[in-house]
Design goal:
Helices cover about 35% and strands about 10% of the residues. With about 475 residues, it is α+β, with helices and mostly antiparallel strands. The protein has a domain at about 70-160 and about 355-465. The strands form 3 sheets. Strands 2-1-12-11-10-9-8 form a 7-stranded antiparallel sheet, with helices on both faces. A 3-stranded antiparallel sheet has the order 3-7-4. Helix 2 (about 95-115) packs antiparallel against helix 15 (about 450-465). It is globular and about 65 Å long.
């Protein structure tokens, strides 16, 4: 899952990335990795007692906030792409739209295979373009190292923190249906224990949480809040909550007693925090009396005709598509351990921030709605969500997307990382096109670089360059 840093999970032996710092008050380019940070939530199973938890420790290694790396946008710009096409990328090759789509699909297939040849286990690439916002996708590679089963179009890849845009859209849609108002403050959202909330958060709203302006601690493995939460749950002698909603409420009540992140003014400053998305889901649950997942299905999945599922990042023996971590040429399959299985219930409260999984075709359909909406067509996406994306200024983080200005256009971008999986997406703000890549391969080096994301980026850049699509 995606975020400014990553708490690496020792059971899977992932490398530890060094801690960094935000450069000034601007909103940095997204390079997040949410995955194992959420180990902090999992040190207690709903059925465990504190005495069973004493041997569970988080890694002491810290990680960058945010990760600085070359994004697909930088690759495209550095590639010197030449011809800027007209609106809707009309006529890539001068033929019919059908022939253009066939050519794009073949191009994506070649780039996906090139990514696999370069070391990715599996890869799906997709593009939405053309007058009709046509969808093209291609897959290559294997479901699991050491086995011969190939990736197929219906395989569901974890998209990590690219889930955040979906969660944001769902909550905006819910507000439009009379649900919790986006301007609802935290004390209003949790009236039963409003007096326990730290005064710094008094004016923070539901929208602030989704824009990463809540001022909450990052919970990325680089600060003391991780161990503090673990210690608090371990020491709690009361019965622990037995539902996902109960665990999210437990976390919300605990975290809102903490001071705001150092140097951050809640409600004003951008500070990437996965805790904010857990709290946003907790607000939905507190105000509606329903699980966030049920609300998500009603207001987003069904109206948009999406397909996918909430996928725990703790694998199960019945999984068909497996994640892989490691340096290039040294990948290992991500498998569950007794420790992660014991804490899975707590790990999974992170779902609204990064646990959605879907096929490449399904993710392309999600993006197609955006392309159509950004062109001004009526879609099931909430109008306020679309309007805010269309007007997003360079550098702003809005509803799970970051706006990045290029010489020719503004692009909405994000990437995601959940253990064993990585995702990348770039969406033209005017609705000309969208491109993405999903892989069941993941890795961050000590310096914060990722050969996996670099390879996905290169595939997307090469594909656009061959179509003479300029940024």
């Amino acid at each position: 899952m995606c975020m400014a840093g990553i708490l690496e999970v020792r059971p899977w032996g992932k490398p530890k990335r060094p801690r960094g710092a935000l450069d000034g008050p601007s909103e940095p380019e997204i390079g997040f990795s949410l995955a194992s940070l959420w180990l902090l939530f999992g040190f207690v199973c709903a059925h465990c007692r504190p005495s069973q938890l004493q041997g569970l420790r988080m890694s002491s290694h810290t990680t960058p906030t945010p990760l600085r790396r070359r994004s697909v946008l930088q690759l495209l710009l550095s590639g010197g792409l030449g011809l800027g096409l007209g609106p809707a990328l009309s006529g890539c090759g001068g033929g019919s739209e059908g022939s253009d789509q066939a050519r794009i699909t073949a191009l994506l297939k070649a780039q996906a295979q090139a990514g696999v040849d370069a070391g990715l286990v599996g890869l799906v690439l997709g593009q939405v373009s053309g007058r009709a916002a046509d969808v093209a996708t291609a897959v290559a590679g294997r479901r699991r190292l050491g086995q011969g089963s190939s990736v197929v179009p219906s395989d569901r890849f974890a998209i990590g923190s690219n889930t955040k845009a979906m969660t944001s859209a769902a909550i905006v849609a819910l507000a439009g249906r009379g649900g919790p108002a986006l301007g609802l403050s935290l004390p209003q959202a949790f009236p039963a224990w409003a007096g326990e909330i730290h005064p710094a958060y008094a004016q923070v709203t539901l929208a602030d949480l989704l824009h990463h302006r809540g001022g909450l601690p990052a919970f990325n493995g680089s600060g003391p809040e991780d161990d503090a939460f673990m210690a608090a749950v371990s020491a709690d002698t009361r019965p622990l909550p037995g539902t996902a909603a109960g665990r999210r409420s437990y976390f919300a009540r605990w975290v809102l007693k903490l001071p705001a992140a150092q140097g951050v003014v809640p409600g004003r400053d951008f500070h990437y925090s996965n805790a904010g998305y857990v709290l946003a889901a907790a607000i939905v649950e507190a105000q509606t009396g329903r699980t966030f997942e049920a609300v998500f299905d009603e207001v987003l999945v069904q109206p948009l005709g999406l397909t996918g599922n909430w996928r725990s990042w703790v694998p199960t023996p019945t999984d068909t598509l497996w994640g892989h971590e490691g340096a290039q040429g040294a990948l290992t399959v991500v498998e569950a351990t007794p420790g992660t299985l014991a804490i899975q219930d707590w790990l999974d409260i992170i779902a609204p921030a990064g646990n959605w999984a879907c096929s490449g075709e399904a993710y392309a359909q999600w993006l197609r709605w955006h392309v159509l909406a950004l062109r001004g067509q009526a879609t099931p996406l909430p109008p306020g969500y679309v309007s805010d994306l269309r007007s997003a200024a360079d550098g702003r983080y809005v509803w799970g997307w970051q706006a990045v200005a290029t010489p020719r256009r503004t692009v909405l971008a994000h990437n995601g990382h959940v253990t064993g999986f990585m995702a990348e997406v770039a969406l033209d703000r005017a609705g000309d096109f969208a491109v993405f890549g999903l892989s069941n391969t993941a890795w961050f080096a000590q310096d914060g670089s990722s050969w996996v994301l670099a390879r996905i980026d290169q595939a997307l850049a090469d594909g656009l360059q061959q179509q003479s699509i300029a940024l």
